[in-house]
Design goal:
The chain is α/β, with parallel strands linked by helices. It folds into 2 domains: about 180 residues, Orthogonal Bundle (Cytochrome Bc1 Complex, Chain D, domain 2); about 130 residues, Cytochrome c-like domain (Cytochrome Bc1 Complex, Chain D, domain 2), CATH 1.10.760.10. The protein is built from 16 helices and 8 strands. Strand 6 and strand 7 form a beta hairpin. The N terminus and C terminus are likely disordered.
Length: about 400
Amino acid sequence: MRFAKPAVLGVVCFILGAVVTRYYDTHRRTPQPNEAAQRAEVAKIDFQNQPLWAYGFDRPPLPGEKALPQNPPSRNLRPNEDPVEQTRLMRLPGSNAAYSRVDVRDGQNVIDWFPDEHPPMPNVVAHGPAALGKNTRGCGSCHLPTGKGRPENAPVAGLPVPYIMRQIQDFRSGRRHSADPRKPNTNTMIELAKSLTDEELKAAAEYFGSMKWWPWVRVVETSLVPKTRIAGNLFLPLEQEKTEPIGMRIIEMPENEEQAETYRNPHSGFVAYVPVGSIKKGKDLVTTGGARIVGNEFIRGKSTPCITCHGEDLMGQGDSPPIAGRSPSYLVRQIWDIQQGTRNSEPAQLMKLAIANLTSEDMVGIAAYVSSRVPRKTTEQSPVPLVTSR
């Protein structure tokens, strides 16, 4: 059995190569979808099997339900909050900066608690596309100055510069949007992408691409999770005690709600509760695709092993991005978006062939395993998140 795994991987790679060749022979160009085509896509989406937790929802969308436009960032005081508290300066240990809650909410002037930990932010990252004027917002307001992002958006630090630029082009052209029409920040991202100049896009891509990636999601296998509420597509705990069955979900929430929400502290990460046994199941799918060799017979798996394209260390290779240690909510959203056909670039179409047979349970396992992996290239750069069982 010592040579079984390489044999399985070799056969799978051969199959994948044949599929890739056939795809490019028959799909030389992918037409850009228009609005009518996107409406047709929504009608075909399998919402009954949607991993709702990955999108930050607790029910499927109603017919015709879609996201309302997000309000642009504002420094206006909120009438339901104490004005003194909203303008009081806050501080973090180890930081020389001081910001109020109004400053934290002002996405047109992105706060930066630890500016010495990354290159200087380009204007577009700190303030947003100039063409949008008062309706703009800086890239760092959602993805953070560190590029680590949060469960409701994308972890962009350490992605290859060409990959980042291609994703923005896909947002611009209509090749990429959310499979859940209610997710508001995807529409905001599309608007921002269309407003970027080529110079702004290049500056943002090179900034985030220059950063080293290290995980800040701690993966915990458990049968129970705290009861939660959903705010802005993010799970927030209602209590610390674990009393609610996790089911076949991943519940990703801040390690410290105040640090993540009130301060937007880039040193305060997230915990992802995953079902017991999901990491082991995910490892099988990631490394072999579920394929087996029984006696002299090769039994094909249900998917192409993730390591075939993303590398044995899951740090990406060629046209495939690094995925190790990143948000499991984000990973599952992308798998499901691609499976449902709302990401339509050529690489996404190839991945759609590879993941066509994955179930929501499979996606949970894959995300649990991938997010629990700590890239060797990053272990000396930051503390390693723990992978524990509870």
